[in-house]
Design goal:
By secondary structure, this protein is of the alpha/beta class. The chain contains eleven helices and 15 strands. The protein has helices spanning 171-181, 200-203, 209-217, 243-262, 292-302, 319-324, 373-391, 417-429, 444-458, 473-476, 494-514, and strands spanning 18-19, 77-78, 99-100, 111-114, 117-120, 123-127, 130-134, 148-151, 190-193, 268-271, 308-312, 331-338, 362-367, 395-399, 434-437. The strands form three sheets. An eight-stranded parallel sheet has the order 9-8-10-15-14-11-12-13, with helices on both faces. Strands 1-7-6-3 form a four-stranded antiparallel sheet, with no helix packed on it. It has a three-stranded antiparallel sheet with strand order 2-5-4, with no helix packed on it. A hairpin with a 2-residue loop joins strand 6 and strand 7 (130-134). Helix 4 (243-262) packs parallel to helix 5 (292-302), helix 7 (373-391) runs parallel beside helix 8 (417-429) and helix 8 runs parallel beside helix 9 (444-458). The protein is globular. The N and C termini lie far apart (67 Å). 47% of the residues are buried.
Length: 524
Amino acid sequence: MKKKGAPPIRHSRSPFVIPAKAGIQCSIRHSRSPYVIPVLHSSFPRRRESSVPYVIPVLHSSFPRRRESSVPGNSTFLDPRPRLPACGAQAGAGDGEAFPVSGLRSPVPGCERSSCGFILKRENRLLNGYIYFFPKPISSGIFHKMKSVFLYTPKFNDFSYGSNHPLKVDRARMLYELCYRYSLLDHPWMKVIEPDPSTSEVMLEFHTPGYVDALEGANSGAFEFTMLPHGLGNSDNPVFKGMFDLALLVLGATLKGEELIAHGQADCVFNPLGGFHHAGPDVAEGFCLVNDIVIAINRLLNSGYQRILYVDIDAHHGNGVQDAFYDTDRVLFFSQHQTGEGIYPWVGFETEIGEGKGLGYTVNMPVPEYTDDDAYLKAFMSIYPAIAKAYKPEVVVAQIGLDILKKDPLTNLRCTNNSYSKVIQAIGESCDKILALGGGGYSTHDVARGWCLAWSQLNHIEPEDPYAGMVGSALYGHGNAGDSLFDDPHRISAKLRRSVDRIIDEKIRYIKETIFPILGIAQG
């Protein structure tokens, strides 16, 4: 709302500006501090170096809670009675002209002060008497050269395994909203692309005709006993309406990512609904209706790539993918997962190392129950960077399931997204072409936060919440606004740590002694 005499103020998404002319005051009705008015002046020519939404908090002396410490790290903090000429800015600038606000001092960490109030050290512009806030453009490093694609369609939300099933397909929607909130989809090298469903003919590139027919027959949601031999209709893979349509959409999204990478149109692609790593040629397993991973990797190989590194950090072993490439050296398979001694799919032991030409090109790092962040990172960093460096992959296909969390109801690890984020960073550094697929994760809100961190790591950026302190979980549903995306640290007891470390050290030693020589990795 505006007081009498103020110019028109309109609500909008991006960018957000607040009138900076002397004497203008706006009344606002927010119960939390700082108070915020997202507005867009009609004369703003939408000059943007990014479409990232930025909100500008305004502090007025009459507000009941005056807190300079609550300045969000990505906003401009303005006094309601600025004297623009004292800032070195020029009022009355022409449309399209931009002038920096200068002559400032710093009373608050990360901020600069002038008679206009507190202004962050960012790209601040004055235009026709209004101060606009722009993100600082990326000008160095590899980041501006990236071409990243986030695959998302509202159709992802049209399906459900059932209200009591642990896999919630709408994780993709939650992630998309969270990435938008944290300004992780608006950088100039990013695109959001809506994928199309694949076809039954493409599914036949890996799956048998009998399985494809059974899956298509389940699309109506009607169960038949002939589906059971194909793994359809049990508690893991219940028959539901649109079952076949979901499989085709998952496959189509992953193959869109494969196509973009193969044609040089993207360097990093993320399909949050992909990563169905359990499905076999003739059977659905472990919530996985189609093995989109195997079909995508085979297409990459057929397009001319010779070395594909598949890395799987889901807590459940990627048995369907391992089986498909167990006897080839054109795919290096690496999986770090909770040991199969007590969890589905009951395989994935370190002694499974491939056969024939593929001997040494299957690497399994099973970790024991109660593995926490330190132990998980130790296991991963002891093996993955070395094999990736030796193999020199042309493309990395990463199944980045997030059921390693201590909150996950289907596993028994004690990790947080702190170690997960570091693992994602290592994966991103191992190759300049990454196809990332969501995979598992059944603590749904935590999965959305973790995948948000994963997307930021793969793009070498930090998530920033422009809505911090304004909007709570009633709107977003992903935790309290302003909360960090990162989990609180967690460590197991010293006694339990010794037991976990002993088991992990044994696995590391076996892999280094057995597989490292095959891959030509010298042991230090």
